């Protein structure tokens, strides 16, 4: 490419509080439209907002976890613009004095570590939700407004333009999501809109210091959309520049079905919002002692947990990274190991059978019907030689649908592994006698022939024969 890609992400995450940022209305998702509202969040005349203290605490937590400096004095501002989902015609946000500044996060892409600097983290209220008549905003001729989301507390995490590819953008977003989940400040359910991001993308000739003209892709709500949207926008801008054109600074929307971005409106500058201090809210003064207390009580974060899994349990860097990328999966792993499960075996099952079943049903580990205790009980049956790995997979399938314990299923279905050598020998000898050609092939040096014979033995025993004993006894007889 003749151009360097320059990307900055603005990540918006709804905080996991019971009530909204400036009033007592519920933040529960999925309520009937326009029921979680009151005069404050609807912006009716004469009302006064009051800050939710939990929002400030969560903002400080997030700032510390993202290596930010917590400002002892911050304030709220009015960001003025008109849009149907904004009943006050301004958004209460933070501008020149946010809660946290100057952070950073290290990501790893293609085996290389890179630092993405974080400009700021600020608190603000969410807007309402437009329900379009068509599939997208550009294909709709009307929209309804649900104000339930208005006033739900948000953190906006703004990166420096340090990202240089769609892969880096995705890795950065995935890591921020994981940290927020570990902190338990947000549920980060992208499908519900509680984690979404805007991507600012520009191109500049290699070696040029000045930034190019950026376009912003608004409200990307999945890792796939972030990566695909950026990839498309890079190609679009490159084509414009190659043809001698000029990229327009604008806000664009991502059409997931068509795989393209489309223009929404011209991109505003900060002065277009006419920021002014919010007169109805006192400034936020954070006691340094309180910040120190929050720092001391931060939970184990993904990087530290990954290192612990490698050091204490001997997991590879790859396996530890996969497991710790989700707090829920890492918790499931730790609980399984605490129940005397072998760490490496648990990891293999988590990334194998458990992950396969979760993906096929489109659910997360939080909805897994097999508990960590049940999984370790199943693995114990394998370790004791009561069932084979192959049978264990069939037992797991039954556990998934019936919710029964492994031992109960094994007894009900008579799946106990045959480990009696005399019983296996008799079957081995009968298979050898019934398959002279395979025996001849084996003796002629065709070692693969033994696989067919093993298969016949396992077929006769319905998979219950101890596979190690089968191989040993078969080779002895051959």
UniProtKB/TrEMBL annotation:
EC id: 6.3.5.-
Reaction(s) the record says it catalyses: L-aspartyl-tRNA(Asn) + L-glutamine + ATP + H2O = L-asparaginyl-tRNA(Asn) + L-glutamate + ADP + phosphate + 2 H(+); L-glutamyl-tRNA(Gln) + L-glutamine + ATP + H2O = L-glutaminyl-tRNA(Gln) + L-glutamate + ADP + phosphate + H(+)
Pfam families, A to Z: GatB_N, GatB_Yqey
Molecular function in Gene Ontology: asparaginyl-tRNA synthase (glutamine-hydrolyzing) activity; ATP binding; glutaminyl-tRNA synthase (glutamine-hydrolyzing) activity; transferase activity
Keyword annotations of the record: ATP-binding, Ligase, Nucleotide-binding, Protein biosynthesis, Transferase
Annotated SUPFAM superfamilies: GatB/YqeY motif, Glutamine synthetase/guanido kinase
Root EC class: ligase
InterPro entries in UniProt: Asn/Gln-tRNA_amidoTrfase_suB/E, Asn/Gln-tRNA_Trfase_suB/E_cat, Asn/Gln_amidotransferase, Asn/Gln_tRNA_amidoTrase-B-like, GatB, GatB_C_1, GatB_Yqey_C_2, Gln-tRNA_amidoTrfase_suB_CS
Domain of life: Bacteria
Family: Belongs to the GatB/GatE family. GatB subfamily.
Function: Allows the formation of correctly charged Asn-tRNA(Asn) or Gln-tRNA(Gln) through the transamidation of misacylated Asp-tRNA(Asn) or Glu-tRNA(Gln) in organisms which lack either or both of asparaginyl-tRNA or glutaminyl-tRNA synthetases. The reaction takes place in the presence of glutamine and ATP through an activated phospho-Asp-tRNA(Asn) or phospho-Glu-tRNA(Gln).
Assembly, per entry: Heterotrimer of A, B and C subunits.
Protein name: Aspartyl/glutamyl-tRNA(Asn/Gln) amidotransferase subunit B
Gene that encodes the chain: gatB
């Amino acid at each position: 490419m003749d151009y360097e890609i320059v990307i900055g992400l603005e990540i918006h995450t709804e905080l996991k509080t019971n009530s909204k940022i400036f009033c007592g209305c519920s933040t529960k998702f999925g309520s009937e439209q326009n029921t979680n509202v009151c005069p404050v969040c609807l912006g009716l005349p004469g009302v006064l907002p009051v800050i939710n203290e939990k929002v400030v605490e969560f903002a400080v937590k997030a700032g510390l976890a993202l290596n930010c400096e917590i400002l002892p004095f911050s304030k709220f501002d009015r960001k003025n613009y008109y849009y149907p989902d904004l009943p006050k015609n301004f958004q209460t946000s933070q501008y020149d004095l946010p809660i946290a500044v100057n952070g950073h996060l290290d990501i790893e892409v293609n085996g290389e570590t890179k630092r993405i600097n974080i400009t700021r983290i600020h608190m603000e209220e969410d807007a309402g939700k437009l329900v379009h008549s068509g599939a997208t905003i550009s294909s709709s001729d009307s929209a309804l407004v649900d104000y339930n989301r208005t006033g739900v507390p948000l953190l906006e995490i703004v990166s420096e333009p340090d990202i240089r590819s769609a892969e880096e953008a995705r890795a950065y977003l995935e890591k921020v999501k994981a940290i927020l989940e570990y902190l338990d400040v947000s549920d980060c359910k992208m499908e519900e809109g509680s984690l979404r991001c805007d991507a600012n993308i520009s191109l500049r000739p290699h070696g040029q210091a000045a930034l190019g003209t950026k376009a912003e892709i608004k409200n990307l709500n999945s890792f796939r959309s972030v990566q695909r949207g950026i990839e498309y926008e890079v190609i679009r801008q490159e084509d414009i520049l190659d043809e001698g054109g000029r990229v327009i600074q604008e806000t664009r929307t991502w059409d997931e079905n068509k795989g393209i971005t489309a223009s929404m409106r011209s991109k505003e500058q900060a002065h277009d919002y006419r920021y002014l201090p919010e007169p109805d809210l006192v400034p936020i003064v954070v006691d340094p002692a309180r910040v120190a207390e929050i720092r001391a009580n931060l939970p184990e974060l993904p990087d530290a947990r990954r290192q612990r899994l490698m050091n204490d349990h001997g997991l590879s860097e790859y396996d530890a990274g996969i497991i710790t990328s989700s707090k829920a999966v890492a918790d499931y792993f730790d609980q399984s190991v605490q129940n005397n499960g072998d760490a490496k075996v648990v990891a293999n099952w988590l990334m194998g059978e458990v992950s396969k079943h979760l993906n096929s049903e489109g659910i997360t580990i939080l909805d897994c019907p097999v508990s960590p205790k049940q999984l370790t009980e199943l693995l114990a049956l394998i370790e004791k030689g009561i069932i084979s790995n192959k049978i264990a997979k069939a037992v797991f399938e039954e556990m998934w649908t019936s919710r029964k314990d492994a031992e109960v299923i094994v007894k009900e279905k008579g799946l106990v592994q045959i480990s009696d050598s005399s019983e296996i020998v008799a079957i081995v000898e009968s298979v050898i006698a019934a398959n002279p050609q395979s025996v001849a092939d084996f003796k002629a040096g065709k070692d693969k022939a033994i696989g067919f014979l093993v298969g016949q033995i396992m077929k006769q025993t319905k998979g219950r024969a101890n596979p190690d004993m089968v191989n040993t006894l078969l080779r002895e007889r051959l």
